């Protein structure tokens, strides 16, 4: 007996609060949720009981919540669990958007479950939900070694992308944002294909 797909009811963008972190690589998840909020015509406001900035919008007959935890990255799970439990949202109905060192700027990947791979935000969310079954949208920011930089990872993610990287990250955000219509319907195979297939750049004719 097949079951109907569960649409995404909570979208969480990971980042760090404070003006000094706004434009840093570690806040790529915040950027994505800000873009989705604009598309859905909603705003985010302080919700102290959810330890973050939150907003909700109508998606067909359903409501979707948007959340940016303001607990700092390593305690993101406290905010996610508070909202999810209050509205009885299952892990499978949660999408967490975050920066990804193992993907180059311009790349994005969508998947469900898996290891937190040392990402402190994902690690805390898994611990607080007691599950790794939530969906993850990984936005590539590159790794200092891959990008030829002699820079510690902690320092790297807390700095702005280089001038040539910012448009690539923004393109990945726009492309993955186009998958929202499928995510909101629980049509994950279509969403995954759209996000994970990077458009080919046409080579100029000789």
Automatic annotation (TrEMBL):
SUPFAM superfamilies: Peptidyl-tRNA hydrolase-like. Coiled coil: none annotated. One of its GO terms (molecular function) is peptidyl-tRNA hydrolase activity. The record marks 16 as: Discriminates between blocked and unblocked aminoacyl-tRNA. Its main location: cytoplasm. It is found in: Cytoplasm. The record marks 99 as: Stabilizes the basic form of H active site to accept a proton. The active site is at 26 (proton acceptor). Keywords: Cytoplasm, Hydrolase, RNA-binding, tRNA-binding. Gene3D superfamilies: Peptidyl-tRNA hydrolase. It catalyses: an N-acyl-L-alpha-aminoacyl-tRNA + H2O = an N-acyl-L-amino acid + a tRNA + H(+). It is an enzyme of class 3 (hydrolase). HAMAP family: Pept_tRNA_hydro_bact. PANTHER family: PEPTIDYL-TRNA HYDROLASE (PTHR17224). Monomer. Belongs to the PTH family. This is Peptidyl-tRNA hydrolase.
């Amino acid at each position: 007996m097949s079951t109907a797909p569960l649409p995404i009811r909570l979208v969480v963008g990971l980042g760090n609060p404070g003006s000094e972190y706004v434009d840093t690589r570690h806040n790529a998840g915040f950027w994505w949720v800000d873009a989705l909020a604009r598309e859905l015509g909603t705003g985010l406001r302080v919700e102290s009981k959810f330890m973050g900035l939150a907003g909700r919008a109508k998606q067909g007959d359903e409501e979707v919540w948007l959340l940016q935890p303001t607990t700092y990255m390593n305690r993101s799970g406290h905010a996610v669990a508070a909202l999810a439990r209050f509205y009885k949202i299952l892990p499978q109905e949660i999408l967490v958007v975050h920066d990804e060192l193992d993907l180059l700027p311009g790349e994005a990947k969508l998947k469900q479950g898996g290891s937190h791979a040392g990402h402190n935000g994902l690690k805390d969310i898994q611990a607080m939900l007691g599950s790794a079954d939530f969906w993850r949208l990984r936005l590539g920011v590159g790794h200092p070694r891959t990008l030829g930089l002699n820079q510690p990872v902690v320092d790297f993610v807390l700095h702005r992308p280089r001038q040539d990287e910012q448009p690539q990250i923004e393109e990945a955000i726009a492309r993955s944002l186009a998958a929202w219509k499928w995510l909101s319907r629980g049509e994950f195979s279509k969403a995954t294909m759209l996000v994970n297939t990077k458009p080919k750049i046409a080579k100029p004719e000789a």
